[in-house]
Amino acid sequence: MFQRAAAQLKAWGQPHQLALNLSAHDMAGSSLYVHTPNPNAQGAPFPHDFTHGETVTVAPTWLAGLLHPDHHLLFRHVFAGYTWFVVVPKDHVARARGESMR
């Protein structure tokens, strides 16, 4: 699903960012985010920096099959005692930081 959404959004050709937010405790709370520029939004900058939290270099077993280390970054957040994982394509992180992808 994540790879298909990334391919479809790339073909769309409009500025966007993609992130997968996964709950370690309740998968019903998980979601796929597509973030686009919004000239009317205050406090919702584009591009958004999804890199807050702890960088995870070894994904949990239940998540490892979704990731390709050459293409994705994984971050862990703990909020209200619950663990969340955020998967972001590497090129979206570089864009948010103003870096170029080599």
Unreliable stretches (pLDDT < 50, length at least 5) are none
**What's the oligomerization state?**
single chain
Structural class: alpha+beta
Strand line-up in the sheet with most strands: 2-1-5-4-3
Please give the largest β-sheet.
Answer: 5 strands, antiparallel
Q: Cα distance, first to last residue?
A: 26 Å
Give the ordered list of helices and strands: HEEEHEEH
Per the principal axes of the C-alpha atoms, what is the gross shape? globular
How big is the Rg?
Answer: 14 Å
Query: How many alpha or pi helices?
Result: 3
Taking all residues together, what is the mean pLDDT? 82
Strand content: 25-35%
How many strands appear in the DSSP assignment?
5
Measured as a percent range, the helix fraction is 10-25%
